[in-house]
Amino acid sequence: MLIHLDHKPKIFITGCSWAHGEWGEGKEQYTVVHEGLIHYFREIGYNVLFSGKGGIGNNTALLRLLEDLNKHYSRGDIILFIQTDPTRDYPKENWTEITRNIVDNNGYIGWCKSLLENFYTNANQIAKDFETTIYLIGGLYNLLPYQNFEKYSNLTPLVDSWVNLLTKQSINVGISDTWFTVDNINLNTIEKHLAQRIVDEMYKLDYNRNVWKIDEYFKPDNKHPNRKSHRILFEYIVRKLKL
User: Fold this and answer.
1) 139 and 159 in contact (C-beta within 8 Å)?
2) Are 9 and 77 in contact (CB under 8 A)?
3) Domains of the chain by start residue, with CATH
4) Per-residue pLDDT tens for 168-187?
5) 27 CB-contact burial (10 Å; exposed 0-12 / middle 13-18 / buried 19+)
6) From CA 176, how far away is CA 210, in angstroms rounded?
């Protein structure tokens, strides 16, 4: 039996499908079979409000979080944001505009950095409005380096990379979503050296999905962290935030 103590802060959790828990395979392919982080916090008596959703981007998750904060936030509550691929928030119809943004930011990683900085600005303002802190966790895509957070006074980078926390590897930057590939870019219109950098960066992000083959942390569906992975993240958060 769970006992919810009044003096415990509420835990707000948001993000994409990685934030939601372990996903099944076969007939349960699109079903959460264990709520992971949500379950573990509830198990020790916390009231958890989850506002994430599979497939959404960071700014969309932020808007969903804001709805919950407006309804339920009290001073001292804990806000956990599991960051996803920053390109998910970008409209997918205009490939020409996307290519221009990549070129203007001197590469695909530069464009992602620009998108993340926009997200951090939005998240920081919401945290300021509530006079609170949003704790960030790198999920499908890593957080920017810690020094980039100096201008975001109400954001705290808690885990720069969940993947690296699990595997003890060094997955640089993150894992690519599949909606946009080098095939969508007219490389012939781009200066040769920049075009090669874009190809290298995007292939590297795609290659990083090989981490999903580590069954210990990503089975059963080999696309999302499983309940063991959520347990490791949960225990890390509890230690760091002294919950």
Assistant:
1) no
2) yes
3) 11-241 (3.40.50)
4) 778 889 998 878 888 888 88
5) exposed
6) 11
> Rounded to whole angstroms, how far apart are CA atoms 230 and 235?
9
> Which pLDDT tens digit goes with each residue over 76-111?
999 999 999 999 988 877 888 989 999 999 999 999
Query: How many residues does this entry show for the chain?
Result: 243
CA pair distance 80, 109, nearest whole angstrom: 24
Which residues have a Cβ under 8 Å from the Cβ of 119 and sit 6 or more positions away? Answer: 58, 59, 62, 83, 86, 89
Matching residue, tokens 């997200």: 119
Share of the chain above pLDDT 90, in %: 81
Structural tokens at position 41: 């916090």
**pTM of the complete model:** 0.94
Angle among Cα 168, 201, 54 to the nearest 5 degrees reads 65
Cα→Cα distances 159→80, 98, 215, 226, Å: 11, 29, 22, 17
